[in-house]
Amino acid sequence: MHDGSGRIAVQNLTKQFGAVTAVQNLSFTVEPGSVTGFLGPNGAGKTTTLRMLLGLVTPTAGAATINGRPHHQLGNPARVVGAVLENEGFHPKRTARNHLRVYAAAIGVPDQRVDEMLGLVGLSPAADRKAGGFSLGMRQRLALATALLGDPQVLVLDEPSNGLDPEGIAWLRSFLRSFAQQGRTVLVSSHLLSEVEQTIDQVVIVSAGMTRYYGPLDQLRASQRSRVLVQPADANGLVTALQEAGLNQVEPTQDGRVAVSGATVQQIGDIAAKAGIAVYGMQEEKADLEQLFFQLTSPQYGAGATAYPQQQPYQQQQGWNAPPPGYQQPGQPPQQPYQQTPPPGFQQQPGQQPGQQQGWGGQQ
Amino acid sequence: MGNLIKAEIRKTLSTKSWWGLMIPAAVFAFLFALGWGAITNDLNDFLGSSDAEELAGLLGVQLGELPVGLLSLAHGINIGTMFPVIFGVFALAGEYSKKTITTTFLTAPNRMSALSAKMFTYIGWGVAYGILIVAFASLATVLTVDGPGLPTASQWLGVLGAGILATTLATLFGIGVGAVWNSVTGATITLTIWMLVVENVLVFVSFGWFGITWLGGVLPNGTLNGIVGAIGAEAFGAAGLSVPGELDEDLQWLLQYTAGAPGAFSWWAAALIFLAWTMLFFIGGWAANQRRDIT
């Protein structure tokens, strides 16, 4: 039997569909009591990984366990793990209540649980309507109700915000947080960091089937450092002056400016004034998480791969992974590590165009 | 397992496919039995041909006392049996096409238990189909066949038992084919064309051109039909252990064909061979499902 820990463990997981490697040597763990985001662009292998975790797809190599066991050894698995998956099927002619009654019987929970779950996800008024007429948002709610039928310890959600209206997303966020606060485990995938940023504590970032980062979101946040780009009359003079003032993270840039980390605009202005160097402009740059996410995931797309050759796939023995070294290397042209726009390849990925977003469906 | 069987029953009862297929099963069984009953009853009354006289003489019965009602029962049941096959295809292939298979596998201890629950539940459905189909075929037979041509009570019970066996195996056969080829449309169309057209043509051509009489006794549709049809054929002395040595082989085949079981060796041989076909697809589908990626 399983160990009841609520821990999800993915070890050296690999899946090949014919010649296509969907997931390559992926490893991470998800601890109970927190909401973990599983992030990566579309096609990064997130869905395949979650389906391997749930026993729906057989790994080519490696293992994915919940409570120390593969899904088919969990006993009554829906009591341990509930899943909201993309593309999940409902018989179009079956009502929401009947759908839940089928699986309540399979799990062995009393039928009253069906109405409780319908109420929880806000579908009570639509309980006797056929699922075929549901909007995407309502289908997501029904999928969540199904996942929660067995009162599971672990909840796995694949892009759950698709089709939810802003109110639904806010509700889902607070629900997932309170679920995790009960000491349970939540793993939620998304291709948009901003969508889950407010919900998650931990993050696993994958791209091209490999782990790029995993660890606390706060650590990722702390790793971003702002820097100031100064345009002085005398770049070399300013570098010398700043270094004499004890600032050693100072690099001239190729366009004649000076990039300074670890100092405020005021400090730099004071030092420049004391040294008698005219300053024509200062620009404070602060990379946000989203930009970091782009950089961590962009190698999947041709242009990014050449722009960030220094990024290495995650290796398990390193433990909590720091952001790739390239990110913090000073002296690079500003548009690389601190770019204002995503790498060119990123915008071409499927699913990013507004037209392909599932929209903010909500209830019909 | 009890939970999963309960879930399977709810699954079926909460959509319309079960009565959507039961109604045509009953209607077709009734109409085919009605038609064959009318034809063979006339045959019984008026046929004075030497073949029939010869046959009656061989069997030591009066021509008017041949249980022709078995022929209409067999034809009614045979056509009705198509529907539990299709119903069986829906059981698993339908879950793939509607993608409900994901939740089914997520809420079952493992795939084997999910499929076992389906198998047990559909045995029950197969029995229900059998009773329904035999009942409607019997009703049509009583309406069209005169008293002397009706089967004896024990023959009728035999038909009921064989009919239930046939529809139950037919349902499992459908599940098996749907499990191997998880497309409702593909499996249903292919099976329908195979069972109604292709196999009949094969059996006819091989008999007409090559004189092969046994082909219908080994192919899936022929053996499925033979479970009930051979009872009629045996009563006419055209199948089973009672085949008289003097009976011409061609006449024997024609009698079997009339009984709806060309080439059938006996009802139990037909049942065993069809069971083998069912197991072939069921085990194949079982193995395919253990490994199939649900994406």
UniProtKB/TrEMBL annotation, chain A:
Keyword Ion transport: no
Record's keyword terms, sorted: ATP-binding, Nucleotide-binding, Transport
Tree of life domain: Bacteria
SUPFAM superfamilies attached to this UniProt entry: P-loop containing nucleoside triphosphate hydrolases
Biased composition (Pro residues): 322-345
Protein's UniProt name: ABC transporter ATP-binding protein
Residues annotated as domain ABC transporter: 8-233
Compositionally skewed regions (Low complexity) per UniProt: 304-319, 346-357
Organism expressing this protein natively: Prauserella endophytica
Residue ranges of the region described as Disordered: 304-364
Family annotation (InterPro entries): AAA+_ATPase, ABC_transporter-like_ATP-bd, ABC_transporter-like_CS, P-loop_NTPase
Transmembrane regions listed in the UniProt entry: none
Entry's Gene Ontology molecular function annotations: ATP binding
UniProt keyword Nucleotide-binding present: yes
Family per similarity comment: Belongs to the ABC transporter superfamily.
TrEMBL record, chain B:
Keywords, sorted A to Z: Membrane, Transmembrane, Transmembrane helix
Keyword Aminoacyl-tRNA synthetase: no
Keyword Repressor in record: no
Species this chain originates from: Prauserella endophytica
Bilayer-spanning residue ranges: 21-39, 73-93, 120-144, 156-181, 193-215, 265-288
Name of the protein in its database record: ABC transporter permease
